[in-house]
Records
---
Amino acid sequence: MDALKHAIDLLSAPTISFTLITVLFPFVFPPGDWFEKIHRKLGFWRIWTKPGLYISLVLITLFFIMGYYDPNFNITLTKPDNFPIILLVYSVVICTWLSMYKAYENDKRMDRGEKPAEYNDPDDKVLVWPDLVYIEFIALIIFMVFLIVWSVLVAAPLEEPANPAATPNPSKAPWYFLGLQEMLVYYDPWLAGVIFPGLIIVGLMAIPYITTSSDNLSGFYSFKERRVGIFLFMYGFLILWIFLIFIGTFFRGPNWNFFGPFEYWDPHKLVPLTNVNLSEYFWVKWIKTGLPSNILLRESIGFISVIIYLGVLPVLLAKYVLNDFLKKVGPVKFSFFVFFGLSMLSLPLKMYLRWMFNLKYIIAIPEWFFNI
Amino acid sequence: MSEEKFIPEASVGTPQGKGSGSTMERRSFFKWLSIGWLAFTAATGAFFTVLIRFLFPNVLFEPPQSFKIGYPEEFEIGKVDIRFKKKYNVWIVRNEEGMYALSTVCTHLGCTPNWLDTERKFKCPCHGSGFRATGMNFEGPAPRPLERFAIHLADDGQVIVDKNKNFKFEKGEWGRSESFLKV
Amino acid sequence: MSKKKSKQTLIERMGNSQIWKSIIRSGIPRTRRQRMHAILGSVFLHLHPARLPKHAVKIGYTWCMGGLSFFLFVVLTITGIMLMFYYRPTVEYAYTDIIDLGEQVPLGIMRELHRWGAHAMVLTVWLHMLRVFMTGSYKPPREFNWGVGVLLMTITLFLSFTGYLLPWDQLAIWAVTVGTNMARATPFLGNEGPGAAMLAIGDINLVHAGSDVRFALLGGRFVGEATLLRFYVLHCIGVPFIAMIFMAVHFWRIRKDGGISGPL
């Protein structure tokens, strides 16, 4: 048991767990033919069958039960404000599974030349009264009962009175913002707190305007024809949002250090956090001159790499990788698509730069509050 | 056929003497139209400006920003004084040459770091930023050192900290005389 | 309806009375026509069409998440109004009023209902978005309504966030301190944002801690009395008001964009 706990602790370190699920992700939601082949070969498709759901629910439940009886995990697990996260884990797993299960069923039907399961004869409609209003009514009552039971069983959290002089350790944002707070470890507030959330909102709103799959794929679950879109959305939603919330809730302890779920939250845990800027790497370690006093010259390498990432890379992509896509949607939609895609990618990118090279900032101009 | 086409009089520009009057009317109409729109835009802009200005009160009911903290001899050399953290959000640090007042606001996201005496550093509980006793950042996500406040001696020999003025290291302001009290 | 008029049940008698008929013109919804009329003639129910495709009433298709989100908004409005009777948004009283809400007020779970309902609403809104994405329902002609939905999700998060401060405990002020400090870094508008230093006339900074976007949100330089009041007003009136406008558009556009999405 202890060995298992230790193994889970090790595996859940963000460097390992994030890498693992990122590598596995395209095989679970295959965005291309090659991934699809391996997806079939290694049996990942079984996740989206009924036994797949049962096994994942049992595994998650076992994990939580194990946590409940562990003295360290129990503390975080039974915090009243963390109960929504447990709900979140279950409901997201069930809902993702349900949509993928139905999508696979529909894909099979459409391969056979049939209509999707949601299809009904347009003339064969049901009356809203009573068919829908009663369903709504029952749903409301069941949900209200659930909410009342929840409220009776779990008291709303109330900690000590506010004290502006004593910051609790760790202090966390509300759970639904923990993905953003996790982002703050890697990016400065103006990016992680303002620009990226703005881009998430605008990017989500832009989805219907920059996607290319047929409009006829609307109104039923499907995967095959929309696999790239679903892959990208699900990576953003499941990994860069839900998974980071999970990490932020359960795995971030005192001093925002990382702790495995079964690890004791030691406030004196020492983690070397000495990070180096790209300019220091370049000027001090590589060319072995001091940092130039001119800010723009000092950060020129950073500016060049950002310009390459956001300016040159899209052109290269357009020319060599995504040229079919460019032809299909035209330059305007393409630019927006690539911009949003690269912005999303920049988070895991910076994570890995930090983990591998201790890189702090690509452009570091604290004089102007301009750090990337 | 074309000669017989009926052309309504009003659609023809200026047939007779009354023409000059109608261009005048049209011209003045456009003038008034643009004035009207300009006035409307200005009024709307002014309305929203006032609305936003409304969010900024003229008087703030916050604790005084300038205060006395005692005589210089009361502060031990080499020690970080945390007595004024709760009330005024400053740390007073005394070294061989003098003393300075550090802001307790972490430059990352404004949490309050804790002074760890054994490790000789300020450690922020929110995201793990670390600062030396001088206020220099050396670990974690904090982008710049802690700010210092103006500090000087009052006429009665007590030390006054004035939080209205702050000094940022990255702008080279720590060299200014007000940021450091020579004792 | 072949029963004789003389042998009316109590319900039928009620349904045919003048009072009932003045409220619900169609009487008791028994026939197909009456049932459709029951929907069309009610100001609340006519949000629905009278008839729906079969898949639209299946819980496996809609997950009921959009409906539950709206239901939770109603629950939160009602419980929120109840809480407002006891809660005073001042540094002196806020915390003790919250304790009293649990201990001195009958039915001491009103605050729990409100808080857990708010958390549940964040969840249902996210799941609703997931469902709409996975069914491809954001595609034309519903692209505008998807955008409205994204804004509603943002508003939901902001509603929940403004409410987070009100208990005035350690959890509240530090979560809000961390959250609002990001506003300090807004480009040009925050005093520690890139570009803010450019907005200066000579030596006078136009954007400083007393004039930036964070100050407007907090009503002060740090989270204090004014912040509590501002968040209270935003939470109880300001943001719900905006949310209701967007919800009206959202629901109206569902009907105008062709009703619930379905395969062609």
Note: Chain C touches chain A through 101 residues (CB under 8 Å).
---
Amino acid sequence: MQDGFLPLQVLCHQHQSSRFIFIKQHRSEAVGQAADHCILFVTGVPRSHPDPQEGLKAAFSCLGPIESVTLHPAKVSAVVCIAEAEAWTKLQQAAAADAVLDLSLPEGKQNGVRGWVEEHKQKFVSTAKLRQQLDDWMADHEAKEAAEKAVDQSNDGWTVVRRKGGRKKTTDAAGTAVGSVAAAAVEARMKANKEPRVLENFYKFQQRNKRRSDIMELQEQFERDKRKISELKAARRFKPS
Amino acid sequence: MQAILAISEGARFSDRQASELLQELKDSSRSADTIEAAFARLAKALRRLPERKITAEEAAELVQALGLTCQPPLHFLPPEEARILGGPAAGLTTTSGRATDVAICIPKGSLYHKDQLNDHYTHRRAVYLGVAAAALKRHKWVLSQEWTFLRGTDRKPTLVVKCGDASTPTASTTFNLIPVISAESFPAARLAPQRNNLRPKLASNAAPGREYPATPHYNNELCWDMWPACDQAQLQSQLQAFPGLSDCILLLKAWAQYHGLCSGPGALSGWLLACFAGRIASAGGLVTGTTPLQMLKAILLRLSRSSTPFLGDQSIAAPATANASAPDVQTFVSAFECVFLDYSGHVNFAAGLSGSKAKLAQTAAKRTVALLNNTVEPDAAFDGALLTQLPPGSAFDCWWHVTIEGNSGSKEDYKDLAVWREVERSVQSIAERALGARASLVHVFPRALLQLAALDKGSVQPASHSILVAAQMDPEHAGSLVDIGPDPNSPQAADFRAFWGDKAELRRFQDGRILEAVAWQVSPAERHMIPDHVLQYALTKHLGSADVSVRGCAGLLDRALATAEFPLERQMAAQRQLQEATDLLAKQLRSLPLALVITAVQPRSPAARRTAAFPPEAHPLAGAPAEACAHVLKVPRCLQPVELLVQLEGSGRWPKHPEAYHKTKAALGLQIADELASGFGLRSSATEDFVDVFAGGFAFRFSLHSARDDAILKEQQRLAPQAAAQSAHAVNLRSLKHHALIAAAVDVRPALATTIRLLVRWLGAHLLSNHITQEAAELLATRAFFGPSPLPVPGSPLAGFMRVLHLISHHPWKLRPLIVDPADAMTAASVAQAQQLFDTARAEKRAAPMALVTAHDLVAEQWTSTTQPSAAVLRRLVALAKSSLSALQAHVFDGEHSQEEVFAKVFCAPFMDFDILVTLHPDSVPGSSRALSKAPMQGHLSSRGGKRDRDEAAGANGHADANGKAKSGRTVLTHIPQGVLDKHGHAKAQRELLTTLVDAPWACDGIHRR
């Protein structure tokens, strides 16, 4: 026992192994502690426990009535408040006697490596089951779509027809390439898409603006370079070894 | 025009970087005034040395360490003059840490007639310096003295004197005293390279009328003392004519130093480089007004275009202004491997430079020019060219330490070169001949001589017992099983047989030719060791009766890739089987009678691109043929699936609703699974996202893809970019692109796949595999093979691994993302955009600490993130890479430590650095037997804090075996026990096989949450 933590062995039925949880009594002088209560910090709660709050409640109920169990968001530590002043003493006695606490898990749930293996196996369902799931989903989906269509049609029996977009077909149903693009047509299209040439330095003010922007660009580049050089110097890249 | 603009933009910034570098180089140099003041005091002391007569016995005792056999007496006269030599004398800045060369001129009165013969001058020179050293030692301002050897030549001892005040030793100045003589001391004609000046002592060898071999190196060293500063005036005039030349030479010296070209004997000296730059300037190779960096580029370009054996070309290396009495240039060409004459025409400055070293410098210059002209990544290129210190042997792929016992050589006759230099030259020529087409360049590193505190004790010998041979390998031929020789009837056949001896044999080749050949019988997994066997055989055969041992490094890291249960041979077989199984499955899939035709089956798994740490092994329960898994003793329970992407033909009948489309695809997957089972008897299981198939002994996981996926992804990207990036199709596409990138790179560079495997193993050994993903490791290694670098592409996995470690430890992660572009798909604009995105993210504190940019991921978010790896993990990674690299370099270059020690240093995690160790039970971790770092036993760690004590005391993993029930309660993931197999049969056991659960991210998951 170190730093006031009391190791207590807990048993997990399903995989017949035990582990330790660590318990410490809360002693706060500032707040003061009610004489008829015992507040315990518990850490080392099995991470994969499906309902650690209930599990802890059940496990510590032998010490007295449980007022509250507050779990840390990490779900591996908790604060247990017991309405029994002697709970800590009882716990110490139990630990001294090598008692094993029963931290029961629901049936069928595994912990530790076996839990991971089970979790992994759960990903694979049988082919028939998966097919059934897919068929069910598709049936639902189709029913939903049919219902939507029916709602549409119920509006005076009119169906809104929308234009179908899509690219020009280049293969037929058998997968054979059909149609072709003439080189001249492509060139003509490219010519048509070519941006019109704009003279940027036709007017004097354009030339002036361009000069100004070039200088500003150069100044910015210079500042960037200076910053880079100073960073390289700070990183001692220029230091001869 | 755009390219020119890009060059000028990049060049502008490079020039700024160059000027910053120059500033740093100048800051670190000492001021000329300090040197002048110290030199004046030294010169005064030298002038006041008293005249003395040194007897033969006294002289012999003074220079005992040189082991010279003749002991002529000496009439010691104070030096005629003392002057500074080399760069500082010509007005160049001296770099820090270098001693200033000082010439002390031995008066003619101290020399005798015909002293040029039989090392008489050499001995008298050493004795003269010995007397001067003894006299200088008495001065208080002489802090220390040490004897070194100029250019690694045992005939040229020099005295290194540290001058200064004892109270301020940091402000001291170091001088290297070099005795020289006047140009008239000996007849110049008798010192031409083709002349002999070392006659045999023994009567049997000294037969009258016998033609003695030329002594070019001996003669050259004498000439060097007669004309020590011939080029000084010319260099000074060039420095005045070209204001930036002095800075350029400083950059040139820094370049040579960073590339390991100017360290040790037989190196490019600073003076040689300065003269080379001066000659190019005087030959009109430089333009006034250009920046030092531009000048450097011009000089390196000339160096890279050298015409052997001249450094540069003949007009540079042997100028026409030479003295008329000087020997013919051709005599130098026939006597030396490399030629660069001084202005007098008598001295070859490049006499000690070997041909391989010159080629190395030439290649380095060429690559540096290419780097400085790089417009895509100018910053990284400049970094590689002028800011990165490379270890001397890093340009090579294979290294061998050759130790020769019992061949100390005979000292009965005078020799042009020292015994050890002759041995080094023999090793060089034998290694070049033996390795032949396997190596593109073989280089023997000349050994430095031991520094001596005094010449009256000890002996002159190389600092290292072993000779370092290094080679740049040709990946195509390096592992050839047969060395093909000439036709048995050709004149070269006798020579071939003489070289290879009993190993040579006649072989009939597939094309019907019968040729001389040498075959090397090794297993396929040991082909990378063939160069070691070749060298061992050839050196043992040709180095006389000497006991030769060759220690190669090719197999140094093999242990990281092979285990006793899964050796390299079986891994190669497994890789082959996997390829066959993949091809067969793809064929079977394409032949299925489906509503939509399968157009392509594309693998996207590390195992398929040969970069997985271990290839998957054929599994007896996954349909492997019996002979493929005959060696399997324990049937593994977990299989790593090989991921495939099955491309379906386009169709307009797919549902428009994304979820309906997904479900339809799942139904099609189910149909494929059924068809595979009914048609080919393959067991498969399907989920909504993928289908797992066991085929040919391997597990394959494929997901379906059609053109509709792209349309859905585009729509998702428009509506919710964040969610779209995480969608299954985006992930599939990403991994497919990554696979294509890496697979292509692996095909082009043969050593890359093994390098990646080594890196993955190294990351795993240092417990970093959950921080650096497999893909990130692949990108890191790919960059080392394809990025702009001053070094050639690594030709061996060891060289590649060291290059990756160098990259990790030297890349400025805080300043730049790492651009990985093996396909040259990125332009300067895209690199600049990636840099801008990185800068923006950094300013907003959301940049990934390790940013890996590819052509299809400019944001660097696919394989790394702000938390994976975190900044702290990256710092640790860099530190580990540095320490591993230094351990490897110490072993490979300096021959330190045994292979086991090096392996332990590189591949064992320093557990002392951790506060908490969670020890997992080996049975619960698939592949636990392959772990390189074994967790230390409890109590082996010294405590650093209470936290560790607490965890160790309480059982760090929080689990405890409960009263003997633990064993039965434990989940065994490593293998299926034989008892279970016997009891339930293979069919039932097959259902217990687990795919994907091979890695153990789940083990870390819980800890991360805490």
Note: The radius of gyration of chain B is 34 Å.
